[in-house]
Amino acid sequence: MNGRILRTILLVALLPLGLWGWRVLHPSQEHLIQKALAGLARTACVPANEAQLSKLANAQKVASFFATDAEINVDLPGRFSQTINGRDEIQEKALGARAVLNGFTVEFVDVGVTVAPDGQSAVARLTAKANFPGDSVPQVEELKINFKKVEGDWLIQHAENVKTLH
Known about the structure:
Blueprint: H1 2-25, H2 29-44, H3 52-63, E1 66-76, E2 80-85, H4 87-100, E3 105-115, E4 121-131, E5 139-150, E6 153-161
Parallel strand pairs: 1-6
Antiparallel strand pairs: 1-2, 3-4, 4-5, 5-6
Helix pairs in contact: 3-4
């Protein structure tokens, strides 16, 4: 009887650990996309006085989050409106931005991810909060980002800011 109770207690204690281990080894597709977005936000930040070689490496890393044929449509009221096509142009623009944005930070919050039933595409809706050097108030934009799965990795296919009433 004591052995049975001990085994039951041990099973109850180990079950949560097993579930945690399963989730670590087999994360959901939504979690993988959220992790990619967090990595993109960290990489897009520009530290003050970033070294030239770091600027190039980080611009390349930013571009690596995008599909080769990706498209970005950005319309920041009072700042700029632009369409960027392809990973090479994304890298070029990221390098140019790093050259002029000394001390830029961005974070993605309220991230919601919907994976398509086929598991090969997904849509993320989120809020981007960007702090531009010299501005006391962050720029806040709602974004819609379409992902596609390429060789097991979630890459951004299309990104645009959502037009909202201000």
